[in-house]
Amino acid sequence: MRPFTRTIIELFDGKRRYLIPLYQRQYAWKVSPQLELLWDDIHRVARRFEEGGQLPSPHFMGAIVISQIQTFGRQIQAFEVIDGQQRLTTFQLLLAAFRDVATNLSKEYSTEIMKYLFNDGVMEHIDVEKYKLWPSLTDRRSFISLVDPEGEFPKATPLPEDEQGVVRPATAAHAFFRERILEHVQVNGEFDPFKLEKLFEALRQGLAVVSIELEGGDDAQTIFETLNSRGVDLTAGDLMRNFIFQRAKGLGQTEGSLNVDKLYEHYWLPLDRWFWREGDTRGRQTKTRLDWMLVDYLAMMQADVVSVEHLFEAYRKWILEEEPFDTVESELKSIKQSADVYRLISEQSTQTALGKFGRFSKAFDVSTAMPLVLYIATCGDFGGSKLDEALQFIESYIVRRDICALPTGNYNRFFVDVVAKMRSGKGDPLTRLRRLLSASQADAMRWPSNADWKTAWMGSDQYKPNRQARLRHIFEAIEHSKRANEGEVIAIKSDLTIEHVMPQKWQENWPVPGFDHVPEGELDPDQLARQFERQQSINKMGNLTLLTHKLNAKVSNGAFSVKLPAVRAHAALTLNRELHSYEEWNEDSIKQRGQNLFGTAVNIWLAPMLKEDIDAFDAATSQEPFEEVEIATA
């Protein structure tokens, strides 16, 4: 490892190229704090030169790590960037901004700066090798448009649809530097050539980085992980990407681009899109979608719980100690397969089984089931309709437990335990999955039977403000089931809301009948009992329905003669058309409707296997007999 101190200008002096591998993270420096801190350094040194002072040594601005690439014939000397791509890209954008300001104010400096942006003379692939810096594919279009506005876009792919109109960080950085430089070189609105000269002197002499050139045997990944001063914090996904691709180094270059880039472009480039960098929250933790996907992927592969805080360390240990893949390409292929599944789940399309499960998962907040879902969708045992059935088993297990108010604290351990047993089990995979989900009678893990589920469905309060998304999902599923039974295919596109048929504030407009003879202010024991019974019915399933839009408060809390017609008016929903059969609405009506709803629900969310069926399956497949699955609690 050979370190050199080089000023910003010296980094790009002479014929040389810096190639940023495609697997390196995209350009991510922001105006605040990275660019503002850098400009403060530049401005401070330039002012020192303007005042006639001398720096004892250049101002240190961090380090870059590069590794020379073997070149042949007419090819320009090239270096692969191991770490420091953020600084190198920023310096080039700074120089491009300096040139653009100087173009209108001082042609000689504009011409001078061009030497540090472009190579000239003999080269093999001029459209690529002319650039001092060759960014990763995702940054290439925006970078070239700034550094070489009149140039073309060699090997720059079109922007994906979800990035159309997005202002990329490189564009923002160039605009920031151009504005700051223009402000710096003007005094009272007039151009000051002296200030431009001293600013260039600051770049040429006063600001430097340590350039570390690796030699054979140097551990590039370890150096990458430890050198990240003043940069954007590396996510677990960033570290994993570099760890994977560093093990695929040494493949050389073809036509001016690194060969390892082909692996990146095919397998990891889709994971560097904006979709995967968006934040997602689980519990109290917010991470990128990519990090959460990789957590679920590793949990699925290891059949063990993985902490997002220790994701990279766990992944690195697994790869180095267990060597689960023969090649880096097979490792990337495995990750991409899970990522494709995860994206289908996240997009929540009603046209795919995974998309529909994604809608359910969001409503019930059960990301803990994702390792099992990834396994089912990628293992190859659940082709065709089997995938739909398998996901329906998981949804049934969770929905029934939710209605029964059973605890969810062991879900993360339980679902990865099911993955482990699926891998080692025998027999039909669908039956094996249902057997494993049905294997316990303990409240921590049991799949409620029809009898237990009906007791909770009919007897427990189900409506709570924080459960509206879950109830909406349940009632939408019942609505769709009723429509299917009636041959209806009309889709309801509006956002549906949960509504109480008998309002929560029922006391004023929905009095218990039969007690008009009781004087106002007196308490009648029978009346109190009936009022208590009514209050106990309000938040039961039978008193809830869906509306295509909210009712105003006056109607929502109105009397029977006002409320029922308003609810029935939402006749686009089968759930509300059925209310026409009720001439009055009371505790008995709520109970009757609850039973009718349950009759539909029990066919949507399936029951667990019976014990005798489990025993028969175990005997047929020579597996261990039925026993309680023990899950350690934290």
Q: Largest sheet, described in full?
A: 6 strands, mixed
The secondary structure category is: alpha/beta
Proportion of residues in extended strands = 5-15%
Q: What integer is the average pLDDT?
A: 87
What would you report as the Rg, rounded to the nearest angstrom? 33 Å
Strand order, sheet with most strands: 1-8-3-4-2-5
- Percent helix: 40-55%
Distance between the termini: 46 Å
User: What overall geometry do the principal axes of the alpha carbons give?
Assistant: elongated
Q: Total number of helical segments?
A: 28
Strand elements, count: 14
Low-confidence segments: 227-232, 626-634
Structure description:
By secondary structure, this protein is α/β, with parallel strands linked by helices. The strands form 5 sheets. Strands 1-8-3-4-2-5 form a 6-stranded mixed beta sheet. A two-stranded antiparallel ribbon has the order 6-7. A two-stranded antiparallel ribbon has the order 9-10. Helix 3 packs across helix 7 (169-184), helix 9 (220-226) packs antiparallel against helix 10 (236-246) and helix 13 crosses helix 17. Residues 227-232 and 626-634 have low confidence and may be disordered.
Keyword list:
28 helices, two-stranded antiparallel sheet, alpha/beta, 51% helix, 9% strand, six-stranded mixed beta sheet, 634 residues
Topology:
Blueprint: E1 2-7, H1 8-11, E2 17-19, H2 31-50, E3 59-69, E4 78-83, H3 85-105, H4 107-114, H5 126-129, E5 133-134, H6 137-147, H7 169-184, E6 186-187, E7 190-191, H8 193-206, E8 207-213, H9 220-226, H10 236-246, E9 253-254, E10 257-258, H11 260-268, H12 274-277, E11 279-282, E12 285-288, H13 289-302, H14 311-322, H15 328-347, H16 353-364, H17 370-378, H18 385-403, H19 411-424, H20 429-437, H21 450-459, H22 468-485, E13 497-500, H23 525-537, E14 544-547, H24 553-556, H25 560-568, H26 574-577, H27 587-604, H28 611-620
Parallel strand pairs: 2-4, 2-5, 3-8
Antiparallel strand pairs: 1-8, 3-4, 6-7, 9-10, 11-12, 13-14
